[in-house]
């Protein structure tokens, strides 16, 4: 049992609607986990200086899974105190870090966004292990990063066995090519976008497919993105989602295709 929160205080910058892309993905692709769960608990780890994104997560998940409970955890006591007036049935705020101090309960979903990007990269695997150990049966953790306005975002999903996938999501007008999201890759990958690394090969291949889809550019960037994703799948990249997600400027690839060369 940890006597104090595990982690260090980060900048805590946040903003309304900043995490809308990952929330949209969670509600559409993971809502079934909450609807089927006996204890549909979700943890928002490191919600920041203002709890707006935790409240938004609660509201969005409740729309697809009405029994959902969300607990926002922050390592900085003043941030918890400022959030407490926003408590309501099913939404709470507590002091805590990567140890996820919720005795007797294990989350079905755990979101940690713009948190680990502020840690040394060699600390990430240990924090991942701790988070995974706190998940409930069939649970999923999301470690992600986005820009200040939430127009470019990426996230890694992890289950009890380790990383599962990488998702890229961007507003079509916020990028000129798929690899533009590289500046927002999760901590474990952002410095791996170099020749010889899998994530670099993936992004370079995606850019090539994007260029080859120029013939449909007159129909808009959405159609071009759809064609690029389809070409990536034909080329053998293990994309885990469908055109329904691609239409949103979002694509998910198996972790095995982008994992760091040294594991």
UniProtKB/TrEMBL annotation:
InterPro entries: SAM-dependent_MTases_sf (IPR029063). This is Methylase.
């Amino acid at each position: 049992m940890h006597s104090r929160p595990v982690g260090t205080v980060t900048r805590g910058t946040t903003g309304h609607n900043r995490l809308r892309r990952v929330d949209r993905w969670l509600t559409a692709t993971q809502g079934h986990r909450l609807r089927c769960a006996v204890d549909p608990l979700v943890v928002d780890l490191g919600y920041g200086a203002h709890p707006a994104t935790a409240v938004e997560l609660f509201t969005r998940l409740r729309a697809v899974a009405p029994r959902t409970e969300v607990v926002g955890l922050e390592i900085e006591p003043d941030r918890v105190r400022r959030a407490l007036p926003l408590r309501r049935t099913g939404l709470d705020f507590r002091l805590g870090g990567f140890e996820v101090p919720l005795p007797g309960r294990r989350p079905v979903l755990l979101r940690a966004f713009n948190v680990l990007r502020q840690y040394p990269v060699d600390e990430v695997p240990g924090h991942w292990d701790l988070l995974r150990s706190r998940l409930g049966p069939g649970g999923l953790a999301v470690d992600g990063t986005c820009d200040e306005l939430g127009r470019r975002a990426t996230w890694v999903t992890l289950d009890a066995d380790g990383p599962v996938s990488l998702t890229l999501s961007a507003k079509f007008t916020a990028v000129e090519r798929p690899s533009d999201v590289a500046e927002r890759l999760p901590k474990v990958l952002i410095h791996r976008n170099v020749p010889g690394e899998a994530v670099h090969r993936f992004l370079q291949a995606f850019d090539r497919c994007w260029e080859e889809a120029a013939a449909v550019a007159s129909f808009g960037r959405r159609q071009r993105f759809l064609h690029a994703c389809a070409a990536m799948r034909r080329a053998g990249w293990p994309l885990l989602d469908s055109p329904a997600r691609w239409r949103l400027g979002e694509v998910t690839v198996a972790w095995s295709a982008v994992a760091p060369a040294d594991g």
